[in-house]
Design brief:
49% helix, 6-stranded mixed sheet, 11 helices, 6 strands, alpha/beta, 280 residues
Length: 280
Amino acid sequence: MLIARGLQRLRSRAGLTQTELAKAAGVSVGTVNRYLDWQDRARLRVPTMRSLAVACQATAEEREALELLVRTQQDGWWVGQPGFPSWLDPLLSFESYAEYEHIYANNLVPGLLQTQDYAFALHRAQEPRADSAEIERKVDARLKRQQSTLDRSPALHVWAVLDESVLRRRPSQDDAVMAEQIKHLEELAQRPNVDIQVLPFAAGHSAGSGGHYLILGRDDARDPVDAMGVVYLELHRRGVYLDATEDVQAYKLMFDYARSKAADTTASLRMLAKARQEFE
């Protein structure tokens, strides 16, 4: 994303279209578009980056900064790992860079907060024809994501708003799985970097209460170039990423409305405890 942003700024400053930039750099238009689109996971190369920067009349400092980003671009530990579909690559990259993650869940416990048994039961319910070994690989990957994200330093601040239906919808007929899951939520809520609020049925609908979404952000007033704001929408077998400023701001506003209508963190802990007792 930083590479794409930097190149886009240079291109705009130089007043070049993608076609003009491609011709000046001696590359194809497809190559230019790939470097301008951060969602393309193909590996970037220093010579190509240098040619594009020179064609945009970048200063030596600007060119070296972009080349350094390309040189230090590394695949995360999750790339190519069994259990992680390719569409999750950007999400895990953003989680490793973000300062905060805001989660709204209206139906299921978010993957970042799931227990092993809940995750297994959920995968089994969603993919009844999958074999157990395949499900176990996905669950192991989910647990590894949790460990790398929730236990990292500096800590990621996670703020989750859970619709009350999340505490009522079981992934299986085993009440013990749900009781353990809610207890896990109670324990997570005690962490200094995790806030969990429950949106009670009595609160009615809130703005954006129609679906599950994540907002990943990094605010840097000193260097806005390093700031980040991305929305992730999880669909069946794919994910959608939104990074346009107006989209990110719209989701941030929806999340603000949701947490303003939700029970505060103390009252939410009481709701969690009550819900757990119903399954014990």
